[in-house]
Design goal:
This protein is α/β, with parallel strands linked by helices. Helices cover 44% and strands 21% of the residues. α9 packs antiparallel against α10, α10 packs antiparallel against α11 and α13 packs across α14. The termini are far apart. The strands form three sheets. It has a five-stranded parallel β-sheet, sandwiched between helices. Strands 7-6-10-9-8 form a five-stranded antiparallel β-sheet, sandwiched between helices. The protein has a five-stranded mixed β-sheet with strand order 12-13-11-14-15, with helices on both faces. α16 links the parallel β14 and β15.
């Protein structure tokens, strides 16, 4: 049975794959950045497992997509990381086709899925060996081709074609789907079973496979059962499985997915009803009311747009409606997570507390509409200070903001703070009682096991902010216990 490639996977999970009793083997790789899928590894691997310890798996997934776009990849995540990674994955370029994001707490449910990947790869390998064996028969007359017992009893239909697109053999499941006897299909064209429009698609798919495409399809066709006369949905794909002379032969897979298609329709209907409820509960949010109403109409027309709307609604729960920065709820959650992570890694982390100077005077003089514009402009400058993975900015409340910089020392945080002050000076937002809008910043940085609780980090940064204001504003101050 093909192997499973485990990238940065914890030993406990590796052992669970090996002990699953399904004949699965597992090869460990601990340098995901240098992982290369050469031809031999592709041939021996049925799936790739990526461990949750990898902080940002997107570069790896992009690299795997370039190496083999059709290789199944399962990425393990902590439950609280699932949504964020799925959202980022939607818009990431160069990602492979078969990426699955999985909660590591449900790891045992992955084993049957990986076993299915392995079984399919073994099936394709068996077909390749069989076709190669048929090709080695004497050239006098046509080679007899027999499917082995496992393939003959496969739950999906399998038809093996020669380089001319003629049928060499079909298995038992194909007899029911096609309405043809296995003993009378030799040299027939598989496309004969389909209507004119479907036949063109079938012929193009088989021709592409015979020319060298590893996989062609899948396509869904509606057929009528030969005996019962009932409509059925058949999913058809083709795969190159061996060489006869200089031209590839292929296998065509026919899968009756009628029940699955009906179940998918029911799931989509339930999903649409759920989205309607979500839209009804969020109409009170005036900033997104028009967008939600428009999205609700689009949801009925497109399943892809439905998924996009759900992702956007999830983001709204952690974003500030005015500035677009993360909100206080997200700050409290992520600060606690990053603090724990930096302690485990014995790494530094810095927290910035930022307050707009004399903002009450700005609002009282120019009004709240202009005040909101000012808040948005300042938020954009603060957000631009977050340049590395894991760094983020949030609106703490009113005219106060917070920036979290995992992996940054106090000196590095001070550089980021000075950059915010300088960029605001360049922006030169007019202020009614000062030369331009400025901010005061307080900084606290701590390292590893000695790091205080998240609330204490905020309190110290806030105390340093107060010191900046006392010293004349428009400056940054690093917290000092004295």
């Amino acid at each position: 049975m093909p192997d499973v490639a485990a990238l940065d996977l914890e030993p406990a999970f590796v052992n669970r794959v090996r002990d699953a009793g399904a004949g699965l083997s597992c090869s460990e790789f601990h340098d995901s950045a240098a992982f290369i899928m050469d031809d031999q590894l592709k041939a021996e691997t049925c799936a790739v497992l990526v461990g949750a310890s990898l902080v940002d798996p997107l570069p790896l997934l992009t690299s795997l997509g370039r190496q083999d776009r059709d290789m199944p990849v399962v990425v393990l995540r902590k439950s609280h990381d699932l949504r964020d990674l799925k959202t980022r994955l939607r818009f990431a370029p160069g990602i492979g086709r078969q990426i699955r994001i999985w909660d590591e707490a449900e790891f045992d449910d992955i084993i049957p899925m990986i076993h299915a990947f392995a079984t399919r790869k073994s099936t394709q390998a068996a077909l390749s060996r069989g076709l190669a064996a048929a090709a080695r028969q004497p050239s006098i007359g046509k080679a007899d081709y027999e499917l082995d017992e496992v393939l003959s009893n496969a739950p999906i239909g399998i038809a093996v074609l020669n380089p001319q697109g003629e049928i060499l053999a079909i298995n038992r499941s194909s007899e029911s789907l096609l309405g043809w006897s296995r003993s009378r299909v030799r040299d027939r064209k598989l496309a004969e079973r389909f209507n004119a429009e479907q036949r063109l698609v079938m012929e193009e798919m088989i021709a592409a496979c015979l020319k060298g495409d590893a996989i062609s399809g899948p396509h869904r066709f509606e057929l009528r059962h030969v005996v019962r006369g009932e409509p059925m949905i058949v999913q058809v794909s083709a795969g190159r499985i061996g060489e006869i002379g200089a031209v590839s032969g292929c296998a065509v897979y026919l899968d009756d997915i009628t029940d699955l298609a009906e179940a998918q329709n029911e799931v989509e209907a339930a999903r649409a009803r759920l989205e309607d409820k979500v839209a009804a509960r969020t109409r009170a949010m005036s900033a997104i009311k028009a967008r939600l109403e428009q999205r609700g109409a689009e949801l009925e027309r497109s399943n892809d747009e439905l998924k996009q709307a759900k992702a956007e609604l999830e983001q709204l729960t952690v974003r500030d409606g005015l500035t677009g920065l993360y909100n206080r709820r997200y700050l409290d959650l992520r600060l606690s997570e990053e603090s724990s992570r930096m302690q485990r890694m014995n790494s530094p982390m810095a927290v910035l507390m930022i307050d707009i100077d004399h903002f009450k005077a700005y609002n009282d003089t120019l009004g709240h509409v202009e005040g909101d514009v000012c808040l948005t402009q300042v938020a954009q400058v603060i957000s631009a200070a977050c340049r590395r993975s894991g760094e983020f900015a949030a609106r703490y409340g009113g005219e106060e903001f917070s920036v979290v910089l995992p992996g940054s020392t106090a000196d590095e945080a001070l550089v980021a703070a000075q950059r915010i002050i300088e960029q605001l000076a360049e922006l030169d937002i007019p202020h009614p009682t000062a030369s331009h809008v400025t901010v005061s910043i307080g900084i606290e940085s701590a390292t590893g096991p000695g790091m205080p609780a998240p609330g204490e980090l905020i309190r110290r940064a806030d105390k340093a902010l107060y010191a900046s204001k006392q010293a004349g504003r428009n400056r940054a101050t690093v917290y000092s216990a004295g």
